[in-house]
Write a structure and sequence with these properties.
Chain A: InterPro entries: CPA3_antiporter_subunitC (IPR050601), NUOK/Mnh_C1-like (IPR039428). Chain A: It is found in: Cell membrane. The complex is a heterotrimer. Chain A is mainly α. Chain A has a single domain, classed as Helix Hairpins (Orthogonal Bundle). Helices cover 68% and strands 0% of the residues of chain A. In chain B, strands 1-2 form a two-stranded antiparallel ribbon. Chain B has one domain. Helix content of chain B is 67%, strand content 9%. Chain C is mostly helical. Chain C has a two-stranded antiparallel sheet with strand order 1-2. Chain C is globular and about 70 Å long. The chains are: A mainly alpha, B mainly alpha, C mainly alpha. The interface between A and C is medium-sized, with 32 and 36 residues.
Amino acid sequence: MESLMIVLVGILVTVATYLILSRSVIRVIVGTAILSHAVHLLLLTVGGLKKGSVPLLGQAAAPFTDALPQALILTAIVISFAVTAFLLVLAYRMYLMNGTDDLEELGGSSDE
Amino acid sequence: MKVNDVILKSVVRGVVFIVFTLGMYLFFAGHNAPGGGFIGGLVLGSGIVLLYLTYDIETVHKGMPFDFKKVAAFGVLLATGSAIASLFFNVPFLTQADGYYNLPLLGEKHLSTVTIFEAGVALTVVGTLVTIILNISEDE
Amino acid sequence: MNNIIVLPLIVPIITATLLVFLNNNIKLQRIVSLITMIFVACISVVLLQLIQTEGILRLDFSGWMPPFGILFVADSFSVLLVLTASIVTAVCLIYAFSTIGERHEKMYFYPFVLFLIAGVNGSFLTGDIFNLFVCFEVMLLASYVLIALGGGKMQLRESIKYVLINVVASWMFLVALAYLYGTLKTLNMAHIAQRVAEAGQDPLLTVVSLTFLVVFGLKAGLLLFFWLPGSYSVPPTAVQALFAALLTKVGMYALFRTFMLMFPLQPEITHTIIGVMAGATIIAGCMGAFAGRDVRTIATYNVIISVGFILVALAVGTEDAMAGAVYYLVHDMLGKALLFLLIGTMILVTGEVVVKNMNGLIRIYPLFGWIFFIMMCALVGIPPLSGFIGKVLIGQGAIETESYVLLALAFGSSIIVMYSLLRIFLASFFGETSINEEDKMPIPRGAMASFIILAIFIIGLGVGAEGLAVYVNDAAYTLSNPSVYIDAILNTNK
């Protein structure tokens, strides 16, 4: 199961890399979102998949799954939610200001 | 521009309450089951966004005259406030208190200060979510 | 239990949220934010004293004992940096009062500065590597907003690049954390160090540590600094100064913690790579500073040179070099803040950015000119100013370990720093003045005050180095003997 997950993570990273390298800002942002999903899956996988029962009150079963990776993922999700939301607003503002969402056209430094 | 959105409006009028109820349920379920402030806040926030989508901003603003930036700030304040309250009781930062209380009508319930912290989280999420959506939509 | 440790993180956050409610009362916003920073500075002085008497302090959040809970750790190294960061922020705020403009102030400028400093302080104080990630993100989110605030055309263009590069870097941070958790099953920094020390640092762990090197290298501007010149030249001057003084330093702090505390056992691999990167950073920074025509470019490449210079100390890794690095970090935060504030003011009063087009400033603004001169001497490392002792100690460490190439590069860079700044000084401050006495633009009094305060600190840091030596030596001792740190955290029976 773990190997399968790692392959999935790899596929997600591939897709995200492809999107991030494209020219449209929106595709880049979608790429960063997929990238963060990939790493969340990776975090889940390194914590070990499905080894015990749910670490919740009232579940008396003896071996519990390590809950820490899930706490880490939740934190990472919250952060990536905030960053993605901010990026979307920023990209929209930039589009209004610069009149293009093409990163190639935006490129270059200011003093040439 | 006049759009015929009678279906949307009448569906949302009912659905929004279901969404809010689900949000509140998730918020309180987080006490010791899956759920919690973040996910509850997200659901509540998306309910509000749904309202903004269906009715226009002015109409919704009449019903909910909040500055959502301030809602978010209040949420952070509530969360950090419940965290630093522990400083005044001379216990380590972020320590939470809980206990079983006999409430009228509800019977014996488990109450904890974590709920205050979670409420802060939920308000922050709602505030941020709605602020971002409004920020993008207001220019049109 | 020392709840005081959390105050540098939590007080700015609480005041920042309070300021959101006071958005229309700019005067009150200014006063509250300044008082907050001064308060945090006082707290850190108290902490610094406390550490000297009681050793390394730690605070276990909600009483969860290490290694299970999240904790804050205060040792001399982190608290010295917290203290300096608070001072620099207070000074930048004073500068901002008179220059930033009402438009920015109404767009939540002060709350975000306070969030930024909360993230910075949290990163310095945390003892848990995932918490370090979270504090990094708090700092970065605030910096994203600050860099885009105002929304000029170029500003938005550069800020989207800045955000994207940092998103990718944060992603790599998470990947490194996942690998680390997969191999060691712990996130407490002291516990990681202990496990690495017990089990030995096998190639897998070294690879993990190198992933961290890439992440923190991106944040600190170690070799991977391509994003830095663009994004540091677009925001308002006060924000530039804050960024230059604080953001790269947080990355460097993380590098020191990673390679002195957590993964110190394979220096022939990790520290060699750091050495090569530091050397390359210095060379590239020098080229940029040489070639730059406008003052901002020269200033940003000076930041890069100093990153390389401080990380030479990490590559060398002796106790002397650590002491030098701590001195130099403190000095560099003050010096770079002053450099950016002065450069920004030069652009403000002349309306020019190219060195050649400004001249004769010292005739009109004599005090301003001489403060620039003092700052230049300090950055170059002329005794008795603040840069000198750091440079000597790092050099001493390099000689002890016979890394002469790094030594030559590090000290050669001082000459380039001098050349680049002296060029500004000679071209822009001397010669015929192009501005008339009548239509000269006065430098705001608040701005002048902030320069004077920083200049006093720089002189004081140089002259009063002896007084600071106790703290710096303690910091260096803890850095070069990880067991002290580990003992303080994991011996829970006290």
